[in-house]
Write a structure and sequence with these properties.
It is a single chain. This protein is α/β, with parallel strands linked by helices. It has 2 domains: 10-208 and 332-382, Crotonobetainyl-coa:carnitine coa-transferase, domain 1 (Rossmann fold), CATH 3.40.50; 236-327, 2-Layer Sandwich (formyl-coa transferase, domain 3), CATH 3.30.1540. The protein contains 16 helices and 11 strands. The strands form 3 sheets. Strands 3-2-1-4-5-6 form a 6-stranded parallel β-sheet, sandwiched between helices. Strands 7-8-9 form a 3-stranded antiparallel β-sheet, with helices on one face. Helix 1 (19-29) packs across helix 7 (168-191). The longest helix has 24 residues, at 168-191. The relative contact order is 0.14.
Length: 383
Amino acid sequence: MTAGALDGLVVADFSRVLAGPYATMMLADMGAHVVKIERPGVGDDTRAWAPPRDEAGTATYFTAVNRNKSSVVLDLADPSGREEALRIVAGADIVVENFRAGTMERLGLGYERLSTVRPGLVYCAITGFGRAGGAELPGYDLLAQAMGGLMSITGPDPDTPTKVGVALVDVLTGMHALAGVLAAIRHRDRTGEGQRVDVDLLSTLLSSLVNQGSAYLGAGVVPTASGNAHPSIAPYELFDTADRPLALAVGTDRQFAALCDVLGLCESAGDDRFRTNADRVAHRGELAPLLQAALRTNTAEHWFGVLTARGIPAGPVNDVAEAIAFADRIGNEPVVEVGAARVRQVANPISLSHTPVRYRSAPPELGEHTAVELPASSEQLRL
């Protein structure tokens, strides 16, 4: 079997719910051995977040982010549980935790303590609002979306703040945690020096606001929700067709001219109100009805084929089932079957040509590996 990019790395995973488990699953997919440390009798909160459940009765929320891991049950409130946790950390390269700030320190498992137990340790702490003034705030994705500004720019209008349909800030934070951990491992491999990595939901969200955050900082413009329209590009939104909505993402004047040609609106391409993107943004209220009338004459699938053939970015609004089917149809292989039970999951999106990701085991039962001997860490293997 081809070696994984992170073979030999051992991760002590104290995280639960989404941001931390997403990051550690990515590490596991790339070959790291991840030991998931869970509470007795309860485990990760998401084991109980159902419905829905899969055919084996496991909450699908839990299965989404916990493949390729071992599950060890430890009571961290008990001295013997903490001693066992220290033993696991002593053989680990990486620790990931997303307790409320200060919790690991109160348990005697904070970075300062663990870095003496395990020199060279990379310790990643994920919090909701950082370790300073926001340390006591609970780190829930919904709160981050609300307090971090995302809901204010999402939804049909400024009076209807709306959350994204998935815990997107958790996922983004997990990806930032992954990047930070890999950067710290690269530094450790060069110098032998471990370090602490801190990421939080609020900072991740503010960074992920990109152009919307820059609009405020660079131009003093406080963005607001504008439905599916784009604040800086037009036409870049949804339009009704004969059967379902179609997304149009026309980003250049050339694309707009081609769109007008396909829709039989050649006069509009030369109209001073629509000549440039800035003109179209200023007059989107006049442009949209013209496009809408033309697009309602046929189906979304028809326009997808016709417009794509002319190099005009467009596509129907798919539900999740249709999205997975579309990805499969174009050869992206979006679904994998993991473990002996062949648990169906969305594939890891990262493709590595020499060290491909691997799907070694399905999400574990609670405590399934409590008595299993851990592998040696990468540093121990080098000794």
